[in-house]
Design goal:
The chain is built from one helix and nine strands; from the N terminus they run αβββββββββ. It has one helix at 3-16; strands at 33-34, 44-49, 60-66, 71-76, 81-94, 97-101, 106-109, 115-130, 141-142. Strand 5 and strand 6 form a beta hairpin. The relative contact order is 0.21.
Length: 149
């Protein structure tokens, strides 16, 4: 390898590492969003950390909010996802297996796993995170649990 190629690799590697300042977001100040078209279901969410809203990179963090019986419809996406229960409780289906989510419960959803959520009788709030820079970079594909491959 020539010295010039080596320098190019060092520069390319250095450009991938961008020092960033901490990002602090107050959940109470983040707007409550929902899917106008209804594909997501009745879930609402607050996007907290996201590269198109905050000076951040590589991670999305938000809070999902469900009223009693509200749903996030069955779907899958290529990045893995994390849930962490904050208040209330509900049910998470992952590849047709049922899991309880409640305060203090963490759930890992593998890449491309079919999953859905329903809020319990008192509603549900949980934090969610993706290893993506922006929420719009998550490739949602909605389908019924029976259609999971």
């Amino acid at each position: 390898m020539s010295e010039l190629q080596n320098i190019d690799e060092v520069i390319a590697g250095a450009m991938k590492v961008r020092p960033q300042a901490p990002v602090v977001v107050d959940c109470a100040q983040a707007p409550l969003e929902h899917d106008q078209a209804g594909g997501f279901g009745t879930v609402r969410w607050r996007t907290l950390i996201c590269a198109d809203r905050t000076p951040s990179d590589e991670m999305v963090l938000g809070v999902a909010e469900f009223g009693p019986g509200d749903r996030l419809e069955p779907h899958r996406h290529s990045p893995p996802e994390l849930y962490f229960g904050l208040s209330g409780e509900g049910t998470v289906w992952i590849e047709s297996e049922t899991h309880r989510i409640a305060p203090g419960v963490a759930i890992y959803i593998p890449p491309r796993a079919e999953h859905a959520v329903e809020g319990g009788p008192d509603g549900l709030r949980f934090a969610y995170g993706f290893p993506r820079a922006r929420f719009v970079d998550v490739d949602y594909s909605f389908s019924g649990m029976a259609e999971a491959d």
